[in-house]
């Protein structure tokens, strides 16, 4: 699929189509489009999920359940200390503690489970699946989630790698000159390594979302993250919120997100996208319309650049029951991982705004 720079006009057209379809849906006259599954599985993921799509597709080909497959796929990234946006090695909260969020949905059984602000467990997606399978609840948070994970035999680890601790310490020492944390002397007394002073100490986002469809038309999804770096302790993003960071309807399709969770929660992005697809909107049009809605809902001055555009990014991914898929982001340059037709690759996300060229 080629990159699609969707113009404002396209957006307005797709939004108009969505409004029209929404009107028929409320009257209970959903558009009946044929939703035959494709021949061969389709797995899509955020750009950091190439290993996840490969693993999940291989497992599905060998007969695994779609949820087991996507969870095994994202487990690879959760356990990888080099990915600082997910699981072990994720960037911590403002206190230097890694807190993880995750959700899962299993299309065939209509099951879902989630954990939020979970500490010390490398694979929160596996815990979320157990919340779905082994409790009468949907979401466990904080200490309760950890207690539950330990009851099921999960081992505790310090999730803060040296690399993530150093990044956190640098943020802590540089983000204010009105507190008692001082950066190392310049030049450093010892051979201590730091990024150059011009590096902005920004909040960073990052997550993995993975959605799968098998030949029988069964669908599942997972979203897992360490969330926004340097967040307030206890902050929960969109990833574990069913309907925001993830939604699966086995009759229609699945959607998920990565990026600024606060912006997504306000529009219940994943559910919104699946509902649009239910009305007959293509995955591409649905993710584009959801991005447009996020931009419309972003009115806070502190979140807008000098041209009035969001100063953050958010991406949506969608997979329909018939195997079509798409990704879209606010800003250009986004990619997403796709396994389909026996091939694993990155594709371009559609986007609303062209990122300014770096001078
Ligand atoms: N959506 C995640 C959150 O807000 C972070 C991300 O995807 O970058 O917690």
- Average pLDDT: 88
Helix content: 25-40%
Question: pLDDT below 50 for ≥5 consecutive residues: which ranges?
Answer: 7-34
Instruction: Please tally the β strands and state the result.
Output: 13
Bound molecules: aspartic acid
Give the DSSP E fraction (strand runs of 2 or more residues). Answer: 15-25%
H and E string: HEHHEEHEHHEEEEHHHEEEEE
What's the main sheet like? Answer: 8 strands, mixed
**Termini Cα gap:** 29 Å
Query: What Rg, in angstroms, do the CA atoms define?
Result: 20 Å
Count up the helices. 9
Secondary-structure-based class equals alpha+beta
The order of strands across the largest sheet is 4-3-2-6-5-1-11-12
Could you say which overall geometry the principal axes of the C-alpha atoms support? globular
């Amino acid at each position: 699929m080629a990159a699609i720079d969707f113009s404002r006009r396209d957006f307005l057209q797709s939004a108009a189509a969505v409004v029209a379809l929404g009107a028929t849906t409320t009257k209970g006259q959903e558009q009946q489009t044929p939703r035959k599954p494709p021949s061969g599985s389709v797995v899509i993921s955020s750009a950091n999920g190439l290993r996840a799509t490969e693993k999940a597709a291989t497992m599905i080909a060998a007969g695994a359940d779609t949820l087991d497959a996507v969870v095994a796929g994202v487990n690879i990234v959760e356990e990888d200390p080099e990915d600082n946006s997910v699981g072990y090695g994720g960037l911590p909260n403002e206190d230097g503690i890694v807190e993880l969020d995750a959700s899962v949905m299993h299309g065939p059984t209509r099951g879902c489970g989630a954990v939020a602000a979970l500490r010390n467990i490398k694979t929160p997606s596996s815990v979320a699946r157990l919340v779905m399978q082994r409790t009468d609840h949907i979401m466990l948070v904080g200490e309760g989630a950890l207690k539950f994970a330990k009851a099921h035999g999960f081992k505790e680890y310090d999730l803060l790698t040296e690399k993530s601790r150093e990044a956190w310490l640098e943020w802590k020492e540089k983000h204010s000159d009105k507190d008692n944390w001082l950066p190392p002397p310049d030049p450093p007394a010892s051979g201590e390594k730091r990024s150059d002073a011009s590096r902005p100490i920004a909040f960073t986002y990052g997550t993995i979302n993975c959605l799968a469809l098998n030949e029988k038309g069964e669908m599942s999804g997972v979203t897992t993250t360490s969330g926004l770096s340097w967040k307030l302790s206890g902050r929960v993003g969109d990833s574990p919120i069913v309907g925001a960071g993830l939604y699966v309807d086995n009759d229609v399709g699945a959607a998920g997100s990565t990026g600024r969770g606060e912006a997504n929660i306000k529009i219940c992005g994943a559910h919104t996208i699946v509902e649009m697809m239910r009305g007959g909107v293509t995955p591409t049009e649905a993710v584009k319309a959801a991005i447009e809605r996020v931009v419309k809902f972003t009115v806070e001055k502190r979140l807008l650049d000098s041209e009035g555009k969001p100063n953050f990014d958010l991406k949506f991914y969608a997979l329909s029951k018939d195997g079509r898929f798409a990704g879209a982001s606010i800003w250009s340059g986004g990619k997403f991982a796709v396994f389909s037709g026996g091939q694993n690759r990155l594709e371009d996300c559609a986007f609303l705004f062209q990122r300014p060229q770096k001078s």
